[in-house]
Design goal:
The protein is mainly β. Helix content is about 10%, strand content about 35%. It contains 2 helices and 22 strands. The strands form 7 sheets. It has a 5-stranded mixed sheet with strand order 2-8-7-4-5, with no helix packed on it. It has a 5-stranded mixed sheet with strand order 10-16-15-12-13, with no helix packed on it. Strands 1-3-6 form a 3-stranded antiparallel sheet, with no helix packed on it. A hairpin with a 2-residue loop joins strand 4 and strand 5. The N and C termini lie far apart (about 235 Å).
Length: about 350
């Protein structure tokens, strides 16, 4: 009985193996004979830098490539590009501009089986970064009539694409070029500032896409500060309290006490014989007064008397050409000459014709 059971188990196991092999064989026959729908494959990046690639590629599979019908469109416009014998389809995108684009492919095989494939992608400009203007302050204060300036640094990764302009009004309506050096530094100066100013500075940079930065400076004019009062103090270097910081003397200088000066001598008439003699006077001031003296008496026969008596004329000798001696009746050009000598009470008179 045990042997019959074993035999039956072996028979059933063999039957199952045969059934599996028959099934696998039938499935393979079915697979080989089945015509599947076309397969479309493609790997297109979602973001493409403009100019970086000129085309994209797709791969199409089908059992009967010859009987395959393709409808390909780029941005809704049909294209006539055909795949090669291996099913590689190359689509030209070199003329596409920046923006969003799409490719749509519809493949239909000989049995009418249809496959669809769609991809969207974006063509972009390279990232050129931002335009930045760096300034230390936007608020500038200046005294009326003085000079001032605004300055800063323009920053961009491609400085050769940058432009800088400024305006004291609406910069979109009117502006002037503002130079900057290789490192982006700029400075804009103003002289004799009389009123408040609003200065706009605009930096624009970029090859593909412009980026810009606007800085606005407010220049505020302040009234001139009053002249400071001069420092008061003693400005005499000889004084005890001399102040070397003093700019104006305030009369506060102090000095060491000096001995009192000798008193001036009393002036007046110091001649006791004078009518106005001043016994208190220590120094004569020439003010002495005296009684008038009588005229001197000329004694007859004295030298003084003879000097007054012996005269040629009342005209000085030599005045008007001389005085005639009256010795002749006519003018003879003889000049009067009188002299005398006194000796022992006697007088000797000499004359030229008298």
């Amino acid at each position: 009985m045990a042997d019959d059971g074993v035999a039956r188990s072996l028979f059933l196991a063999g039957l199952m193996i045969v059934s599996v092999l028959v099934g696998v064989l039938f499935f393979d026959i079915q697979q080989e004979g089945e015509n599947l729908a076309p397969v479309i494959e493609g790997d297109i990046p979602p973001n493409i830098l403009i100019g970086s690639i000129d085309s994209v590629s797709l791969k199409i599979y089908d059992e009967e490539m010859a009987g395959l019908t393709l409808v390909v469109s780029l941005d809704g416009i049909g294209i006539t590009d055909e795949p090669d014998s291996d099913g590689n389809l190359v689509i030209d995108i070199s003329q596409l501009g920046v923006g969003s684009h799409s490719i749509k492919v519809v493949a239909t095989d000989s049995l009418g089986q249809e496959s669809k494939w769609t991809a969207s992608f974006m063509i972009e400009y390279p990232d050129e970064g931002y335009t930045v203007i760096v300034v230390s302050t936007n608020e500038v204060f200046v005294q009326q009539g003085n000079s001032t300036s605004v300055s800063g640094v323009l920053v961009h990764q491609s400085m050769d694409t940058c432009e800088l302009e400024w305006s004291d009004g609406n910069i979109s309506e009117f502006s002037l070029n503002l130079p900057f050096d290789d490192e982006g530094r700029f400075e804009l100066g103003f002289s004799n500032v009389q009123e408040n100013l609003t200065i706009s500075i605009l930096g624009t940079c970029g090859t593909w896409v412009d980026s810009s930065e606007l800085e606005v400076f407010n220049i505020t004019v302040m009234e001139p500060e009053p002249e400071p009062e001069p420092v008061q103090g003693c400005t005499d270097p000889e004084a005890n309290n001399y102040d070397d910081t003093a700019e104006e003397d305030d009369g506060s200088c102090t000095y060491d006490e000096e001995p009192e000066p000798e008193p001036e001598p009393t002036r007046g008439c110091t001649d006791p014989a004078a009518n106005n003699y001043d016994e208190d006077a220590e120094e004569d001031d020439g003010s002495c007064e005296y009684d008038e003296e009588p005229e001197p008496v000329v004694v007859t026969g004295s030298e003084e008397w003879w000097d007054m008596t012996l005269l040629c004329d009342d005209t000085d000798v030599g005045f008007g050409g001389g005085v005639d001696d009256y010795n002749t009746s006519d003018f003879d050009n003889h000049v009067c000459d009188v002299s005398y000598v006194m000796e022992d009470g006697n007088i000797t008179i000499s004359s030229n014709g008298l």
